[in-house]
Amino acid sequence: MDASGLLPITAVFLLVTVEFGGHALLQFITTRHGTLTPLRERFFRAGHAHAGVLLILSLVYFLYLPRARFSSGAEWVFGILLLAGVLAQSGGFFLHLALGSEGRSSLGTHLTRTGAVLIAAALVALGIGLIQNL
Length: 134
Fold this sequence. Notes:
By secondary structure, this protein is mainly alpha-helical.
């Protein structure tokens, strides 16, 4: 199976984890109100929102990936780069939620920034591939 066939399936199943996260967040802000500090609630919301939006972006990305006419290996590299970036960026918010403190960088904030760079690299690669095949 090629990258544009398997990786979107992975993204769809990852969206199920975002749904579970939405359920957990809803519990925290309704029936278990006060369980999360305001800082942790903000980072939970940010991680959850970024994960959902970026996974939807990845589904669009995988629709366009074949149009760039990359080699099979390059499609795998760029597709995995994108999904790794999505997991790193959103996961960094959750890591900061667990380890970080107000107004200070943590391993989580560094992971979030790294994820953004990975996503940007995958998007730039796709953009270049699409331009080359106009």
